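During the no-cost extension, the postdoctoral fellow (Dr. R.K.) reprocessed legacy sequence entries with the updated structure-token encoder. One reprocessed record is reproduced below for audit purposes.
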Amino acid sequence: MSKPTKVAAIVNPQSAGGRTARHWPQLAAMLESRLGRVVTRFTDEPGAGIVITRALLREGCDLIVAVGGDGTINEVANGFFDKDHMVRPEAVLGILPIGTGGDFRRTLGIPADAAGAIEILAAGVPACIDVGKATFRASSGGQNSRYFVNLISFGMGGHVAAESKNFMGRFGGKSAFLWATLKTFLTYRGRQVTLALDGSSTRLPFFITNVAVGNGQFHGGGMRPCPAAILNDGVLDVTVISYAGALKLLSSFSMLYSGEVYSHPKVCHFQAARIVAEAASATEIEIDGEPVGMLPLEVTLLPRQLRVQVPSSSPLLRVSEVAKEGKKVPQKNSLGCFCNPG
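Re-encoded structure tokens follow.
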């Protein structure tokens, strides 16, 4: 991209267990050496990144860099929107990944090291990506909405996110997440849910371990529940993992990282631009790694709405070809579900 005239960084000082705050002077110097003057704003509470981003965009920022983990990226991306309208359509979201997850940057092809990510901010190009919008029951009981760029899940994933605020947090976010995962893995019971896709009156019933709705491919620190997802193909990928007990889950756990999840007999895969999910009992939701509420849930898609800085070699830039790249041709079963023919 041509060198932006006004650059801002929104920094979560608590990300990576506080490492971001300690290293920020060095990171800021690296950014300014490649991008010129950078306005810095720090987040100090949940949701602050949304408010700060909107304010900076209204002040005319051309490039806003989210400095932190996937939760920080989600907040900054939400700040680009106001009631489904772009605050500043020509502005670009940049990513300097400093956190424990790094799932969205994996799909974008942005390296984990700061120097490599900053080089993409300076020498990369903007690509237009899809953005999901989730409307759900908030923890307070009312209705709430939130945008997402990466992935939303409900069932076990939502429960793990909700349980991640625990006593292990004193040792860092990763320790708290691992403890929540272990506890949930041993105690979780399935949930009965229904899915309706793209306005269909047919409600598909599932007894689930987890459902992932992916714009991106990764979540949970490298798990890959939506390996066919492409960020600008105009659809979301829905991966349904039917319920299995702890021992069966354990024996299949590696498949979540392999990119071969669709081959598992307990897995079904859909694509849709609108998803409605309902449950017979309390079923938690997480968006880009953060617990947000419960089903019922409606997910819609805003196609190619957000400009994100990516490597110049990114397949996202080849819009006419991207849907053909890397996708096996699946077959549908009687439910309309894509299942691996092998």
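Residues 320-335 have pLDDT under 50 and may be disordered. The two ends are 43 Å apart (CA to CA). The remaining legacy entries will be reprocessed before the final report is submitted.
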